[in-house]
Specification:
Largest sheet: 5 strands, parallel
Order of helices and strands: EHEHHEHEHEH
CATH topology: Rossmann fold
Number of domains: 1
CATH superfamily: Response regulator
Strand order of the largest sheet: 2-1-3-4-5
Radius of gyration: 14 Å
């Protein structure tokens, strides 16, 4: 099964370093690097994806001081509550705040994975989401 992934992450080194095994397996990955880019492209971005990989700490991309502490959480709430989408989401970030972890779990994320992560481990986790749904 080919998985179509929307990867919301601002660190290009993480994206390109970790996505290689996924691309080799034929999965399709599109990237967004800021909350601004996500908001500008929301309608087209959320169509046709099987899964989202999301960093919690993203730049807003508006060229000013951040108004939102966890921009990735804002995006996740937007997907779940405003767009009413139950698309599988994997959090790939450094999350140590217990309240944030609880809120993420309440928003039905599939997995919360710590950075850094081995490319093969992430590929296994992503493919595991769909193995478990069969």
């Amino acid at each position: 099964m080919i998985i179509r992934i929307l990867w919301i992450e601002d660190d290009a080194d993480i994206i390109y370093g970790v996505m290689e095994p996924l691309i080799r397996k034929g999965h399709i990955i599109d990237t967004v690097k800021s909350m601004k880019e996500y908001l500008e492209k929301t309608d087209e971005l959320l169509k046709g994806y099987d899964l989202i990989v999301l960093d919690i700490l993203l730049p807003e991309g508006f060229g000013e001081k951040p108004k939102v502490r966890y921009t990735g959480l804002y995006i996740l709430k937007h997907i779940r509550k405003e767009r009413k989408m139950d698309l599988p989401v994997i959090i790939l970030s450094v999350v140590r705040d217990k309240r944030l972890l609880d809120e993420l779990k309440n928003l039905n994320v599939e997995k919360i994975l710590d950075k850094p992560i081995l490319p093969s481990k992430l590929a296994d986790e992503i493919e595991g989401v769909f193995r478990n749904k069969r």
